[in-house]
Amino acid sequence: MQSTTAETVRTALSRRGRWGLGEIAFWLVAAATLFFLPERHLILNEIAIIGLFALSLDLILGYAGIVSLGHAAFFGLGAYVAGILARNGMTDPLAGLIVAAIAGAILGFITSFLVLRGSDLTKLMVTLGVALVLGELANQMSWLTGGADGLQGITMGPILGLFEFDIFGTTAYAYSLVVTFLLFVIARRIVVSPYGLSLRAIRDNPLRARAVGIPVNRRLVAVYTLAAAYAGVAGGLLAQTTQFVSLDVLAFHRSADVMLVLVIGGVGYLYGGLIGAVVFKVLQDVLSAWTPQYWQFWIGLILVLLVLAGRERLTDKARFAVKRFFGRFGGKRPGALPTTSAREI
Question: Is the entire prediction scored with pTM above 0.85?
Fold first, then answer.
């Protein structure tokens, strides 16, 4: 019986690990924007970075159930580390990203023991407090961070010694997109593994997960550290591609924005952060051009309507429409479509 169950689980995980047509289409469209939207590369670069940042939050919130209001702490630390390294002669982008990831992971590992204590409200306060402390340190250590004036004088070398950053943002966007894709693939592999399955069990019922032998605290520390490394890379990308770092990267609104991105895109499946980043930045861009003073009002109103209408209901209808479309052209009935839905990922 036990071997049968294990085989069933392995089969289910293997099925979830397969790439669906929708996923492949998503990344092909993202790659195509490199060639068909050259005038929008600057904002697309921002979207790729925010998407990666949201992906890191989704790993802890959507899969492990760890709430956070201070995820910008890791993002900002990564940005400052990458910026400071570049300003002091370490201009290789990939080396800067690796160090930013390590710095984020170390901070995540240290603070994870604080975050895992207490209830959700305690976690919110602790994560928020960590971000506030780092923000104040960055403000006071102006000799290192530039303080309120920001970290200036960042100059990046070519990527892999071949690709120079340009003023149109083309290299920056390609760089951010490739890094986001590679980290997404790793995250995807993790969440469809037995480790990812154990995280879901912890999220749904920590007591039962502990009762069946899952080392709850160890798993949560590991995923929190991993998510912090992801956020550090996102911050490093921002510093390298904009060549400027300000106190804004550690501000509370960074953590709030990435939470909104997940609310829009959906929590608990990796594409939620990426789709939410696209919708959020496009809305922000359009609304701020239309009404510069009140764009936040309109985003807030859209969020309220989204919650009242029920995002799950809307996405279910969209998913059903896509299945009907492919079923019509593929000769299959909507209910017979196989594969791994985005929600399962």
Answer: yes
